[in-house]
Amino acid sequence: MHRFIVRKLVVAAVVAACGISVQAATVQAPGEAEDLVPTGKGWGQRTAPGQAHKAANPNSPNGINYHGGPVMTNGVNPYYIWYGNWNGNSATTILTDLAQSIGGSPYFKINTTYFDAFNGPVQNLVTYSGSTTDNYSRGTALSDSAIQAVVSSAISSGRLPNDTQGVYFVLTSADVTATSGFCTQYCGWHTHGTIAGSDIKYAFVGNPDRCPSACEMQTTSPNGNAGADGMASILSHELEEAATDPDLNAWYDRRGEENADKCAWTFGQTYTASNGSKYNMTLGSRQYLIQRNWVNAAGGYCAVSY
Fold it and tell me: Which end of the chain is less packed: N or C, by CB atoms within 10 Å?
């Protein structure tokens, strides 16, 4: 699975697999000469004996390689699972607005530079498809397997549909942690698994209010909710990685970094909101500070639009 690694204090971040590291962690990839594959823990690793993970375009001029797997070519349907206590928290509106406005934007269009060998490029299409709540069914300390169980329960109970074009986001309130490294190794991650007989893509996005110095860029934010605005950037990171590397076998570079990893904790040109906070894009009616994404064209580069 892929992790949104916690941001580093000195330089932007060393990123890996399916996410971005916490700010204070310094997680370096091992120094092997051969290509690395994603681990989800903040670095790449050598392939296991007998595995073949050679890039289909090992000499790509754009700094990221295709490894033969599918991408989400028919649009992406985000689903939210609000885990914990979200009563009175404006995050439920802020993040829903994000999901409803990111599709069709110049920002998400960056993902159209990624394709697969079967069906062509990712489409600039994101359709927010619903949400449900989970009142601490697995407690306040979630293992990776518990997070998958939260997703499985939402689908098997019929609270959310079984959708192979979906990405199911487990969004946790600030009193909830993830035991495999939230706030110390990562701020969020994405992966996939067999749930109800289908290949389901899902993600964990923790609330940065639990560890502002690790997972928030600013404590005053454009929408007046630093935790939610921090989650907006993490969520966007995982959404674009899920679109371009849903099964962890499509697009990543020689260090095992996916497209969003390559631009983690970088934001490009910023502007000042009325409350003094910074933002770099407007989606719908809201201003957001969202990390850049890697454009798979023109030699490859980080950007907020394409």
Answer: C
